[in-house]
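Before going further, it is useful to explain how the protein records used in this thesis are read. An example of such a record is reproduced below.

***
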Amino acid sequence: MSSQIRRASTSIAANIAEGHGRENTGSFIQFLRVAQGSLKELETHLMIAERVGLVPENAVKALLRDADEIGRMLRSMVRSLQKRS
């Protein structure tokens, strides 16, 4: 479970970075959407980890609040880029 959480969280940052390095806005948006998918995967793993007793509820709640904020930032970035193109 910890390996899956690490992979999903790393994937978020990696996709944002890879998309930013692309030459066209459409590709960047596509990578941001993949990052959003990785964020949802991370949220799911965190909820499962809590349910099976691997992570305390208060820690998961704090992490899910952070994930929600990151999700809002990603959505805002996608909307902003869509307006430009």
Summary: The helical segments are 2-20, 25-51, 57-84.
